[in-house]
Specification:
By secondary structure, this protein is an alpha+beta fold. It has six helices and ten strands; from the N terminus they run H-E-H-E-E-E-H-H-E-E-H-E-E-H-E-E.
Length: about 290
Amino acid sequence: MAKHNEAAHRQRRDFLKAAGGAAMALVATKDARGQSEHAKAATQGRRRPDEPSDRGLWVTWYDLPDNGQDAYLSWLHDSYLPGLLKRPGYLWAAHYATRGTETRSDLHHVEDPKVPTGFRYILLIGAKDAGVFGNPAPTEIHAALPEQGRKMLSMRVGERVNLMTEANRCEGHAGNAYREGLTGAPCIQIGSFNCPVENEEEMLAGYVQQRMPAHCGTASCIGVRKLNSVAGWAKHAILYELASLEGFNRDYAGANAKSPLGFKDHSIVTMLIHAPNGPNSALRIWPPAAKA
């Protein structure tokens, strides 16, 4: 009788143990499935339909010699840029001529002679994201150009390149009326710079809380982008996009004046180390501005 009871007890214990293990496995499976479904949902919902599609920017500053400019510009606008825009992930391109030649004496500029100093022309190329510029890289694209293309690129003087990713963006009042689609604005102001690490958080706050909203609140502003570099000398850049030169002349300085770059009324502008001859305002020369 005792043996029978012991056998029955052992059988019941084995059954409960097996059932418990099965239950734990079922719970673990449900948890794993729930986590997978949650991760899948998060991945699917990570990008909203209204998010900007051009978060990568390839920015080039350079000068040109007087001799041969027309031939270079014809090649760039008629061959080089249309060719780039056929590549996967490339969305738009805009070529600018810089306004003015005087360097601002109230800003600190890099003194390293290894940093190229070109600035009279600025080329912006927009892509889905900065990863597009990694496969192939710009240097690989240029190395594969025909001899005539490489000859044209060799005309650039003081060429400086930054591959940028967009960290933040605000849409301006002029954006709703802008009819030129996904391309660079008719008028821009762009600055590229480095910032001491201990001031970077305050700089970011200054842009997000004060300067970007101040500019986006003006009538001429299409948008403002805060950029960070994945390759190139400058770690940071700011790009102001405006509907017209007249709007820039009317609104830009006033928006800057009322938006200190820092916490509250404090400004860290004096701590920034700007690229040579920057920042720059420029007008788009390609594609030609749409006629009113």
